[in-house]
Amino acid sequence: MAKEKKYWLVKTEPFKYSWDQLVEDDGTFWDGVRNYQARNNMRDMKKGDQVFVYHSNEGKEIVGIAKITKEAYQDPTTDNDAWVAVDLKPVKPLKNSVPLSTIKATKSLKDLLLVRNGRLSVMPVTEKDYNTIIDLSKQKEKATA
Fold it and tell me: Does residue 2 form part of some domain?
């Protein structure tokens, strides 16, 4: 039986750890998550899953695609075994970043957790929503006034 493809979105504040830094490092461990729902999502991540990287606070946009290279393991930044980390490797930047304003304006993305629960730092993305966001990234963004 073929492995089911899963898609995710992780948030990062670019001043702390940006897409460019992920590319420069050629991968990193994703740690420091202290929300149980986000942690449970990380536990569900499988090697090879695709992950959108979203710049929060500054930019508020999806900027690139990474992949899971190591599944959940003890978060090395804490001795508390309730928390996990995963390893990510950059795959490619999006042709055009997809801002939160565009995502919110796209009716078919109304159920995306980024829209419904904007505070969650690690969230699943349906295959349909993943493909919609990829399509949006191929469009030249209209200038905003």
Answer: no
Task: Name the residue type at position 9.
Answer: L
Residue 125 maps to a domain: yes
74-124 residue pLDDT tens:
999 999 999 999 999 999 999 999 999 999 999 999 999 999 988 899 999
Q: Are residues 47 and 69 in contact, defined by beta-carbon separation less than 8 angstroms?
A: yes
Q: What is the pTM of this model?
A: 0.93
CA 47 to CA 69: how far, in whole Å? 5
Question: Contact 68/79 with Cβ under 8 angstroms?
Answer: no
Give me 105's structure tokens: 């304006």
Each residue's pLDDT tens digit, 31-82: 999 999 999 999 999 999 999 999 999 999 999 999 999 999 999 999 999 9
Cβ of 133: how many Cβ atoms within 10 Å? 23
- Whether 143 is in a domain gets the answer no
Is residue 57 situated within a structural domain?
yes
Domain holding 21: CATH number? 3.10.590.10
